[in-house]
Every structure is written in C-alpha cells, then in structure tokens.
Amino acid sequence: TRSFGLFGSHVAIVVGATTDISLIWDTSGNVGVSVSVGLGTGVDVSANPFTGVTNEIVDYVFDVGNMALSYSPGSIFDQAGFSNEGHVGFILGRSFDVSTGQMANYEFGNLGGGVYWTYTTVVPIHKSQ
Description:
Layout: E1 2-25, E2 31-49, H1 51-62, E3 69-71, E4 81-97, E5 103-126
Antiparallel strand pairs: 1-2, 1-3, 2-5, 4-5
C-alpha cells in the first residue's frame, strides 16, 4: 500500500489533537482516502498542507530516498484501525511510529513535539474486482 499525504496538522499544549488526510492505493487496484484523527499530549503545533510535497522537496535537497510515497504492507483496508504516532521538530520536523520508533515523514512548519493516539478510517474511491 502506498500513500501520498494531502494534509496533516497537530496541536497540543499539554493535551492536543491531530488529523491527517492521505490519498492511498495498493497493488490490487484499490484506491481511497485515509483519514486519521487522534488525541495526544505534548507542546506541539504544525499545519502541513501537501505533506507528500514536503517529503519530495526534502528528498531532492538532501537525497534521503523517496519519502514522498509512504509504504505499508497489505491492502488499503488493512490501514484502518488504531495506532500511535509522534512528532518532533523545529521548522523542519519528523513524524515517527511510537511503537517501533521507525521514522516516517518529514514535516515543514513544525514546532515542538507530541505523542498522539490515532484512529484511521479508509474511504474507498475505487475497489478492485
């Protein structure tokens, strides 16, 4: 499953919230939009329109590998459910998976850090037969 970030934001002053919207597709031909919302804690603020574009720019400037397209195993429908994520940065930030510690995406306009417990749902646009 591949995804391209369309919008992400998070804000916390001790307690906060996060949201993320991405275009998502898999090798079976399924296409959809994933929507994640969550609650968390930290001192953190960020608004990231077109997070996939931010990752593409960072990749071009720093040659870190193709970060614009996130990869996850399984179909788009396997991406739904509960998870947790962290965000940290000063102007340029990073998001990471709290349970594995694996770095995920770059973020621009990030200030501070926080940890969020999220729920993701997938809205299918096209289902393969």
